[in-house]
Amino acid sequence: MTGAAAIDAGTFDYIVTGAGSAGCAVAARLSESGRHRVLLLEAGGKDSYWWIHVPIGYSRLFANPRINWMFESEPEPELEGRTMYQPRGKVLGGTSSINGMVYMRGNPADYDLWRQRGCTGWDWDSVLPYFRKAEDQERGGDAFHGSGGPLRVSDQAIQWELGDRFIAAAIEAGLPANNDFNDGEQEGAGPFQNTTNRRRRWSTATAYLRPARRRANLVVRTSSHATRVLVEEGRANAVEFLCDGAPHVARAQGEIVVCGGVYGSPQLLQLSGIGPGALSQEFGIPVVRDMPGVGADLQDHFYVRLAFRCTKPITLNDVANNPAKKLIAGLQYLLFQKGPLTSNGICAGGFVRSDPRLERPDIQLNFSVWSFAERSHRGVQPHPFPGFTISAVHLRPDARGTVMLKSPDPLAAPAIRFNFLRSRDDIAALTAGMRLARKITTQPTLAPYVAEELLPGAQVTSDAEFEAAIRKNGVSNLHPVGTCRMGADPAAVCDPRLRVNGIAGLRIVDASVMPTVPAGNTNAPTIMIAEKASDMILEDAHAA
Ligand SMILES: Cc1cc2nc3c(=O)[nH]c(=O)nc-3n(C[C@H](O)[C@H](O)[C@H](O)COP(=O)(O)OP(=O)(O)OC[C@H]3O[C@@H](n4cnc5c(N)ncnc54)[C@H](O)[C@@H]3O)c2cc1C
């Protein structure tokens, strides 16, 4: 596609590519004053699909090509050659429109580590104001929580008997009680909070974009796939995109802000000749800047689930498998906005250290009131009986992977390689997490609810058997980050103000800039990054 043949889509102060967790927040903040003309390009469509907004609809979004990129990784050598299914939102709100809605910030030390790695201004004390700015905490604001921000954060609207039992059993097993994982102290067991208003999902499209869309200075274009950033004399000044298949070009007088996510952002840069020079040459793309770091440093959490058959029909499986219960739940939701449909099912959990010598937790336990026979690109299939799941998530895996073009076709998926489980430490941490999860289920409060351990199964007891189960069943926790890493070192893609090194007028703002993955879910940290980046972009514009 060349600029000359393309339809002129106009000139803007800022062009934001990708309306995901970060992109919606950035576009809303940059257009807030009314002074700047902002174009937001999103490859997917509007978020009008009903199940996006109903918390239980999460499982219906997991493998739905209508709103999901449905990537698949390359075979993983240490995981019996299995590929890792990678859902990603392709819709307004991006992955915040299809994710599990757990609100988690990570550990303060994660951000202090960012600063120690050269990311000045990203330590915990500096990022906390942006977590607070984004937040509308149902429990009210305090030193750690914001009130009145765009992003609703709430407790589960439904009290799950099993969730309460899990928390009590975890305390019996020796974990401290923790009612708030986001106040700087992670360790312990307790209830999870969600990005919902108790009834509906609160994606960034709902939180940020919906109130901003009335603004005359914000243009939102869906079905608009950015295919190249044009750079002239070292400055990014236009974006080419395909809208319903037709080539378009939009020009930027200020900046181009790439918010395509951990797969979309490195791909767009590589398609633009900003990436590993040899890769560009292999696909006949003129090299604009040789940057080996673009697409490198992919990191993700890795988890193994323990699935249990439950003795009582009190799980979400029982709603899904019983037409009468399903009907009642549907009516409860439609008439009163209450009941199981208000829940994501991931109601509780905990943070623990896999080894007492560690300074902070490296394992997250997620407790879900459902269990499934299959969860892949074919969809989610609950077990045909009552069940629950405890996932042991390793928060600091040693694996580093890549995201690289497979083809010069901008609509083709990139090659994703995680290289999971290359270290003994990864296996040891997960084994400890799984043993602890099992121990919790044997405590007096929870044991009566366990009919059978389905996965990995009670026969798995030795370290070797746990390792085999991890290699067979472990998967990506869907928190990939780091493919356009910020830093102060020569290999970093962008500087700590998120400006792409060596290219003026180009920033990256999304999960791909994280230098290391935080010890928690990644949506809230991505929104924090968007809030902070928006301030930096506006500050730099005023200073210019
Ligand atoms: C199934 C699932 C469950 C999850 N559960 C949780 C959870 O419970 N809690 C949590 O905190 N995190 C969760 N996460 C992770 C979290 O949602 C993501 O880390 C976060 O949304 C990433 O935000 P982002 O802005 O980097 O990318 P995205 O939100 O993916 O945004 C990227 C956007 O860019 C668009 N785009 C990409 N390329 C182009 C292009 N070339 N042109 C135009 N548009 C483009 C995409 O369509 C998308 O809208 C989950 C993730 C998944 C997949």
Task: Note down, in words, how this protein is organized.
- The two termini are 33 Å apart.
- Helix 1 packs parallel to helix 14.
- The longest helix is centred in the C-terminal third of the chain and has 21 residues, at 523-543.
- The protein has helices at residues 21-31, 50-53, 58-61, 108-116, 124-134, 161-172, 204-212, 261-271, 277-282, 316-320, 323-336, 424-441, 463-473, 523-543, and strands at residues 7-17, 38-41, 71-72, 85-86, 135-137, 151-153, 188-191, 218-221, 224-232, 235-243, 246-258, 274-275, 289-290, 302-310, 346-352, 363-368, 372-376, 379-382, 387-394, 402-404, 415-417, 450-455, 475-476, 506-508.
- The protein has 544 residues and is α/β, with parallel strands linked by helices.
- 27% of the residues lie in helices and 23% in strands.
- The chain contains 14 helices and 24 strands.
- The strands form seven sheets. Strands 1, 2, 8, 9, 10, 11 and 24 form a seven-stranded mixed β-sheet that branches. Strands 7, 14, 15, 16, 19, 22 and 23 form a seven-stranded antiparallel β-sheet that branches.
- The radius of gyration is 23 Å and the shape is globular.
- Bound molecules: flavin-adenine dinucleotide.
- The site of flavin-adenine dinucleotide has 42 residues, from helix 1, strand 9, helix 8 and helix 14.
